[in-house]
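#struct-pred
JK: can someone run the complex with iron/sulfur cluster? inputs below
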Amino acid sequence: MSVATVAIPHETVTEHPVLEGRGLSKRFWVRRGHGPLTRRASLRAVEDVSISLGAGKVVAVVGESGSGKTTVARLLARIITPESGQLLLDGDPVPRRRSRKYAAQVQMVFQDPFASLNPVHRIRYHLVRPLRIHHIDDQDVDTAVDELLRRVALSPPSQFVDKFPHELSGGQRQRVAIARTLAVRPRVLLADEPVSMLDVSVRLGVLNLLADLRDREHMAVLYVTHDIASARYLADRIMVMYAGQVVESSPSVSLTDHPAHPYTQLLLSAAPDPDRMGRPLLVTGGAPPSLLAPPAGCRFHPRCPHAMDICARVAPPSVEIAPAHSATCWLHVDASDRHAPDPEPPAAKRHTNEDLTDLSAGGTGG
Ligand code: SF4
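RT: done, structure tokens with the ligand placed:
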């Protein structure tokens, strides 16, 4: 399939987003080498990611370890600040420092329910604390705690409220972690691999709880996962990330029925599917590249069975291949349009800041 080259931003399509990130990029600095040869090097965790979360919708960000998906969630939560790009809440720019007001509207659920609850405190303590910090329901805290436990299907509340975290199952602990985020009445829930550490038997219950929060409470939900099958089950829209960049974005059914990017095809091929007839869409080896020195051109080209000459030299544009469905791949560009952009005029001096000087000394830029 070839279409005309149309460069568009990879962005979730939401009419009135509650929370929006535009062109978010983030680098981390790491040390490489030993002794006197130690150098600082830049790890490009996320590059130019745009995403919008609408009320009553789930957006899934899918990718392997190191794809940058958790960094996107942390950027949206304002736990870390982007190097460039903008965050908007209800269309208004979000200040660089995470305020209590922002935290009350945008809450994050972490991957490990074992680590996110303090083992020396009872469940009541974990739920009362955010209520008190945010001055909510000061009058009748016990009723508010019971209500929170019921909302996450831990019922009757009396069976759970005086237990310690270690007395609950993994699924119940994750429900308590979600109840704790609900205590401040957020409008956006950022769930970072919320089921990956749970037994398979309880994963579906937690996913259904997130779906329930979307449908009944009209919450905007970000679901970060490496499991594209669960993303299809839960999400209205899926963004696929590879090596810090978005490579495909689409309504979830369209993406899983008609994957356009070879990496998405690889993820789908790796997902167990008892209904699949015949051979998987794509089978290939290799591992994601180091983000300290990502490959030139398309970052997937060392693993891609469809790689062409241009793929190793020039980064592909993002192309709209169907309404609200875009992919960053040269395969979807007319053959006659597959050429390198004109070289830039030499006058502009680039990379002037100190960090980039350091980087070139370390020889790690990609
Ligand atoms: Fe493969 Fe080239 Fe498409 Fe990258 S741009 S996914 S290397 S075909």
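RT: quick notes.
Residues 1-8, 348-366 have pLDDT under 50 and may be disordered.
Residues 261-262, 298, 300-301, 304, 306-308, 311, 316, 329-331 surround iron/sulfur cluster (CB under 6 Å).
JK: thanks, will look after standup
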